[in-house]
Design a protein that fits this description.
The protein has about 120 residues and is mostly helical. The protein has one domain. α1 packs antiparallel against α3. The protein is rod-shaped and about 115 Å long. The termini are far apart.
């Protein structure tokens, strides 16, 4: 007979063994100690599986709460940066510490002197 590999197959195998023992009272008397240990294992497995499914649901719930908290945190960070910009001034270089670009003077563009086109000069 093939050996069960997945969790569900192992649980079904153990459950089948326990049910087979219940159906045959003459065998049950011979293997009572081992049946009791197997029943305890099945009880532990069942409770751990239920806990695993509960934690999966809790993980999903916590993931949703984390998403909401991150969105709220991003909004509060924007508000904080706006307040810092307002308190320090829009040109203060200390804004860089808060990852805000201060307003800086723009360099003047040099006026380029256009060369006289050769055709116009000769005319």
């Amino acid at each position: 007979m093939p050996n069960p590999k997945s969790q569900a197959d192992i649980m079904n195998d153990i459950q089948g063994l326990l049910e087979a023992t219940e159906r045959t009272p003459e065998v049950r008397a011979l293997v009572e100690a081992e049946r009791e240990a197997l029943a305890q294992s099945m009880t532990l497995i069942t409770s751990l599986k239920a806990r695993q499914e509960e934690l999966t649901a809790l993980r999903q719930q916590v993931t949703q709460q984390l998403g909401v908290a991150l969105t709220e945190g991003k909004e509060r960070a924007m508000i904080f940066r706006s307040v810092v910009r307002g308190k320090l001034g829009i040109r203060n270089e200390r804004l860089v510490h808060f990852k805000v670009a201060p307003l800086r003077k723009r360099p003047r563009k040099k006026v380029s002197v256009e060369k006289v086109v050769a055709g116009e000069a000769g005319g």
